[in-house]
Structure formats: C-alpha cells, structure tokens
C-alpha cells in the first residue's frame, strides 16, 4: 500500500484529531471485537458500560444509559428516532436552529419527520422567539446545539428545554464537538443544568479517541427501548444500535482516552485550545479581518475567497462556513507554531 494517512501538521478544519497514545493502543487491541454482539464479545461489552458511565459523568447524568455510536451522525439520527417513537403525533416535526448539523437532515429524510429549521440570533445562537413560534402540538423534538460546527456557539439549553417540555416534546442536545470542553466553562448545557432527554457527545472529536467513537446518552434506559429490535441469530436478544457489527476499537479507545484525560487532561487541553483560538482571532483582527468571537476553540473570519484558495494551495486544510467565512477549529493537534506558520503564509500572500 502506497498511500499514507493524512498528516495533521496542516489540518485546521477537522473536528477530529490525533488520538491520545493510550486511545490508539486500546483501539489496536480491540480492533477485532464487536460490541454489537455482546454475548460473544462480553469484554468489549463491559468496556462499553464503562464508556457510558464515564460519558454520563462528563455530561452530568446520574445513572446514564446510552451507547458508543459510529459518530455524531448516528447519535443524532437515533435521538430523532426515539422522539418519533415517543410522540403520539402522526405527522411529527423536529425544531432545530439553522446552526444544527446536517446530520439532522439525514435523520429527517430517513425517519419521515418534518425538519423545521429556525433562524439564529446575531450571536449565532438559537433564536428563542423563532423556536417558540415553530413548536406546535406535532413537535416531537427540539434540538439545541452545545458547540456549533461553524461558530462553536452554545444555544440557551435551559430555555429550549422549557419550550420543548411545554409542548410535550423532547429536548436533544448536540454536544458532539463541545461535550469535552464545556465542562470547563460556565455554560449551562448538560443533564444537570436542564431537562435534557438525549445528548450526542463524541469521544472521537475533542475526546481524543480513535475514529469511530461517537456517543449517545439518554436520560433513562426506557428511552433506549424505543430503539430496540429483536436479534434472533445473536447470543443476545435485542439491539438498540443503528449499525449491527460495529467497532470495538471505538469503544475501547473512548474508555482509554477518558480514563487518561478526564478531567485534568481535558481541562488543560481546553485552556490550550482556547488560548490558541484567541491568539488566532487576535492576529486576524489585527490584519483587518472581521472575526466572530471565539467563545469556544473555533475561529471564523471573513477572509476573501481568493486568499482562502491560495492558503489551500499551500496545503492548509481549511474550510468555510455556509456564508463563506474561513473556519479554523483549534483541535488538540493544532499548536501555536502551526497557527503562527499559517498566519505567516497569510502575510506573505497579502504582500503580493
Ligand atoms: N454534530 C456536530 C455539532 C458536529 O460538529 C458534527 C460533526 O462535525 C456532527 C454532529 C456529526 O458527527 P460525525 O461526523 O461524527 O457523524
């Protein structure tokens, strides 16, 4: 095989990162296990219980239930599926701010629910009035994002919970990216802060686990029952996951990373990443670009298309928001030296 995996030294757009060495090692050891068949692979199944317990601790959930998914997309689809199963409505809808991840569009398509996308306010957070106006007796789920993909913003989760529950709908929090940094901030985002029913929180993003390792948490185990199907040919009798065979590597690496890093390692990583984001925002502002305040370690700035393309041509892996701003995600592999080199390239491009 000739092709090498992507090196991380110029990757500024990814929500994933280099796994922690302990996570990499655990992934390798559990590569040939299948937590989808817990009767046959009981060890990895026990590890999955540990993973869910650890995720519950991070997300403020006593008595946690859930499972390790293939990623945030699967967790979001499953959350919509639970809500659809729970509602009495025959024409259910899901209300989500426009900052919600595109995985909810997949969920809506697959599950035949209407997705009502509402605007965000001038700080890129869910507009509560717009959410209130969109919710009705057919609303099965309200989605709040805790760490948005484009601007790293946290929606007002307690207020969204009140709106959801006054309409007899469920509240899902998508903390796929934010879940491993938010414990070190003042945001109200988790099960202990609001009446959250389900949550996405992905070890393979800020959690520094190996891909594929997403997380679905549910307030109580009966919510998982909404997903369960009978499994006649397996040693176990039912399965709540979307995929059948799945990666034990993701499960084991999640446990290894969290045991290694929670909480002190994640805290110092958050501080490092946040400082880097603020440094970059500052550097871009000084050069005259309009920058969205990096409230979490993610920077968005209105760098012109031609400059963006020239930076990409220099090998920088960068991406753009829906409205065309450059976005840089300060993941654990993103160092100050990388950012300084990026800004150096930007300066050289501007001179020409
Ligand atoms: N939710 C949020 C907020 C995300 O940022 C992402 C991906 O970046 C997802 C969900 C989807 O996660 P995945 O790509 O692991 O399926």
The rounded Rg comes to 20 Å
SSE ordering: HHEHEHEHEHEEEHEEHHEEHEEH
Rounded mean pLDDT is 96
Estimated share of beta-strand residues: 5-15%
Query: How many helix segments?
Result: 11
Strand order of the biggest β-sheet: 1-7-6-5-4-2-3
Mind summarizing the main beta sheet?
7 strands, mixed
User: What are the bound molecules?
Assistant: pyridoxal-5'-phosphate
Helix % is 25-40%
Distance between the termini: 40 Å
* Contiguous runs where pLDDT drops below 50 for at least 5 residues: none
Shape: globular
Structural class: alpha/beta
Number of strands: 13
Could you characterize the architecture of this molecule?
The protein is of the alpha/beta class and 352 residues long. It has helices at 21-29, 42-58, 72-86, 103-111, 128-134, 157-166, 221-225, 248-261, 264-286, 305-313, 336-351; strands spanning 65-69, 93-97, 114-118, 139-145, 170-174, 198-200, 214-218, 229-230, 238-239, 291-292, 298-301, 319-320, 326-329. The strands form three sheets. Strands 1-7-6-5-4-2-3 form a seven-stranded mixed beta sheet, with helices on both faces. The chain has a four-stranded antiparallel beta sheet with strand order 10-11-13-12, with helices on one face. A two-stranded antiparallel ribbon has the order 8-9. Helix 2 (42-58) packs across helix 8, helix 3 (72-86) packs across helix 4 and helix 9 packs parallel to helix 11 (336-351). The mean pLDDT is 96. It binds pyridoxal-5'-phosphate.
């Amino acid at each position: 095989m000739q092709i090498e995996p992507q090196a991380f030294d110029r990757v500024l757009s990814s929500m994933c990162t280099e796994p922690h060495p302990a996570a990499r090692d655990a992934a390798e050891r559990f590569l040939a296990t299948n937590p989808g068949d817990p009767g046959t692979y009981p060890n990895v199944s026990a590890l999955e219980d540990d993973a869910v317990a650890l995720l519950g601790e991070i997300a403020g959930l006593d008595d946690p239930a859930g499972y390790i998914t293939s990623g945030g997309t699967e967790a979001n689809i499953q959350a919509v599926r639970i809500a659809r199963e729970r509602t009495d409505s025959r024409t259910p809808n899901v209300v989500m701010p426009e900052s919600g991840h595109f995985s909810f569009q997949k969920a809506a398509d697959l599950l035949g629910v209407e997705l009502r996308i509402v605007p965000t306010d001038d700080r890129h957070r869910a507009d509560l009035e717009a959410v209130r106006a969109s919710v009705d007796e057919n609303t099965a789920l309200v989605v709040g994002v805790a760490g948005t993909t484009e601007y790293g913003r946290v929606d007002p989760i307690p207020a969204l919970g009140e709106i959801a529950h006054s309409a007899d709908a469920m509240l899902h929090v998508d903390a796929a990216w934010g879940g491993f940094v938010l414990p070190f901030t003042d945001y109200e985002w988790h099960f202990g802060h609001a009446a959250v029913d389900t949550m996405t929180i992905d070890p393979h993003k800020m959690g520094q686990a190996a891909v594929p390792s997403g997380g679905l948490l549910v307030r109580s185990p009966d919510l998982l029952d909404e997903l369960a199907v009978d499994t006649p040919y397996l040693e176990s009798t039912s399965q709540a996951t979307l995929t059948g065979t799945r990666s034990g590597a993701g499960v084991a690496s999640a446990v290894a990373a969290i045991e290694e890093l929670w909480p002190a390692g994640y805290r110092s990583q958050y501080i490092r990443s946040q400082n880097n984001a603020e440094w970059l925002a500052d550097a871009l502002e000084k050069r005259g670009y309009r920058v969205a305040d990096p409230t979490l370690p993610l920077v968005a700035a209105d760098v012109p298309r031609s400059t963006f393309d020239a930076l990409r041509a220099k090998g920088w892996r960068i991406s753009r928001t829906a409205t065309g701003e450059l976005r840089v995600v300060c993941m654990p592999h993103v160092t100050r030296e990388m950012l300084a080199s990026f800004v150096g390239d930007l300066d050289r491009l501007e001179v020409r």
